[in-house]
Design brief:
Rossmann fold; 337 residues; 7-stranded mixed sheet; 6-stranded parallel sheet; 10 helices; Quinone Oxidoreductase, Chain A, domain 1; alpha/beta
Length: 337
């Protein structure tokens, strides 16, 4: 099969090669990949600033995929040949709290990912793809949509009428807006581009704040919520901005710490955190059972992902360059029809 193989850190070391097609072992599925979607995690792995000590070369990167099962190993009972499935990042995290070694079983690193014509999935980790989505659309779900869902529903315990603050207009923020809007919540979005704020309003955001023209954006959040703050904040920026997120979140509210776009470390001001009794919860996607709960919701509400651009399989390098520039919604690489 053809696969993009990472030989060393750096995008220049990602090469399209012919490699042996894997064969499914007991309890495994061989999936013909229709499409994959890119996440910041994929970029960080390739560039060597995401758990670099766990990367073993050569590596087929990219965790999020959708495709059709073409063969099954012995003992498979959850799926059959011809079923259309999603990958799930944590191939061993099925339910409950994560085990200490969950990162050792992640797709796209350290396990082989989906930037190839075929990939192996554990049948326990695979999820039925939504019937109303194409492979390109379904490939956006495993990290971006599921992270948003878990942050809102499981961690934040979202209720209709509450206020959700989403940062940026990337994949997680866009899905969070769509899900929260369908659930009856109010959404405040931040972005550095007015054009993106207008687009996210069209998807259900009630208000938008340009953090470049309003650097004290947390004060605007408080004004929009009559001094209360957001019930749930999806923190995707990272870095010292966590202090503004604390100020923008209600007393005893929840911050779902998801991203690290502006830095993996922060200088945290403890007194506001203590006096506001803010709950900060680290989010590293979710167990498979949350995926099983999310997909029917997406189908019921006819939610479709926002796709910025679809690249051909041989255009993977261009797709990663696009990811580095930023996108509204998701970047897709189409593998096969």
């Amino acid at each position: 099969m053809k696969a993009w193989v990472l030989k060393d850190f750096g995008l220049k070391n990602l090469k399209l090669e012919n490699v042996p097609t894997p064969k499914p072992g007991p309890g495994e599925l061989l999936v013909k990949i229709g499409a994959v979607s890119l996440n910041y995690r994929d970029k960080a792995i390739i560039e060597g600033f995401y758990e670099a000590d766990k990367v073993h070369f050569p590596l087929i990167p990219v965790s999020d995929a959708a495709g059709i099962i073409v063969a099954t190993g012995a003992g498979v009972t959850r799926f059959k040949t011809g079923d259309r499935v999603n990958s799930h990042l944590y191939s061993h995290w099925i339910d409950g709290a994560p085990a200490a070694d969950e990162p050792d079983w992640c797709l796209g690193m350290p396990l082989p990912g989906g930037l190839a014509e075929y990939m192996i999935l554990d049948e326990k980790a695979a999820v039925k793809a939504p019937a109303h989505m194409s492979d390109e659309q379904a490939s956006t779900l495993p990290i971006a949509a599921l992270t948003a869902w878990y942050a809102l529903m499981n961690t934040g315990r979202l209720q209709p009428g509450q206020t959700v603050l989403v940062q940026g207009t990337g994949g997680v923020a866009v899905f969070a807006t769509q899900i929260a809007h369908a659930y009856g919540a109010h959404i405040i979005a931040t972005s550095g581009k007015d054009s993106n704020l207008e687009r996210i309003r069209q998807l259900g955001a009630d208000a938008g704040i340009n953090y470049k023209t309003q650097p004290d954006w947390e004060q605007r959040v408080l004004a929009l919520t009559h001094g209360k703050g957001a019930d749930i904040t999806l923190e995707t920026a990272g870095g010292n901005g966590i202090n503004q997120s604390i100020a923008a979140t209600k007393i005893a509210g929840t911050i779902a710490q998801i991203g690290f776009l502006t830095g993996q470390t922060a200088q945290l001001n403890l007194m506001p955190l203590i006096f506001r009794q803010t709950r900060i919860h680290g989010i590293a996607v979710a167990p498979r059972t949350a995926f099983d709960a999310m997909n029917p919701f997406l189908e019921r509400h006819k939610i479709l992902p926002e796709i910025d651009h679809i690249y051909r399989f041989d255009e993977a390098i261009e797709a990663f360059h696009h990811l580095s520039r930023g996108a509204f919604g998701k970047i897709i690489i189409k593998i096969s029809t």
